[in-house]
Design goal:
two-stranded antiparallel ribbon, 2 strands
């Protein structure tokens, strides 16, 4: 059996251009995580409003937390 070892530097963060994806189903991630960067890349600065709403309404965060359906900014869906 052959073994393949490689590295990747793929990181979806604000400034990334989504070509196909219009939405994302995910839970609420902790501050300063790479997963929060993914959310911010998808919805733009609105991520702050979304997370403030979740905090003010006692949503659960992290792996077993509440889920959300987020639409990509400019997709024409949800805005």
């Amino acid at each position: 059996m052959e073994k393949l070892v490689t590295k990747t530097q793929i990181l979806i963060a604000p400034g990334y251009t989504f070509r196909i994806v219009k939405g994302l189903i995910t839970n609420f991630h902790q501050p300063q995580s790479t997963l929060l960067l993914l959310v911010a890349a998808l919805v733009g600065q609105d991520w702050k409003k979304i997370y403030n709403h979740a905090l003010q309404n006692n949503f659960r965060f992290l792996s077993y937390g509440d889920g959300s359906l987020l639409w990509r900014r400019g997709s024409g869906i949800g805005y």
